[in-house]
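On clarity, I found the account of how folds are encoded harder to follow than it need be. Since the whole study asks how a given chain folds, the encoding of that fold should be made plain. For illustration, here is how one protein appears when written out as sequence plus structure tokens:

:::
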Amino acid sequence: QVQLVESGGDSVQAGGSLRLSCAASVFINSYCIAWIRQAPGKKREGVAIIYPGSSATSYADSVKGRFTISRDNTKNSLYLQMNSLKPEDTAMYYCAAKDTYCSGVASVTYSYWGQGTQVTVSS
């Protein structure tokens, strides 16, 4: 069983930055790992993914150029650096993982999920 614990969510002004962290209970290098968000009343949205055994990444168009996903295998941790935040980035952010290939950033089908961390961006 893979356990994922997110942290780093906060309330910030538009234009600000946040760094989300996700601590995993397993060696994450062999997993497809993603950041997924869900705003109130909206469907889950894939934000960014990092491919297993690779540093290759993929981003949703809505965050491309502003967000950066990274992985530290020595700490079994995943990160999401979020810059130039906008009010529309307000959502619960989840770390998710699966031990198969990545289906693409738009996929929200994962075997393991964290409890989420709230990001609120005010204008």
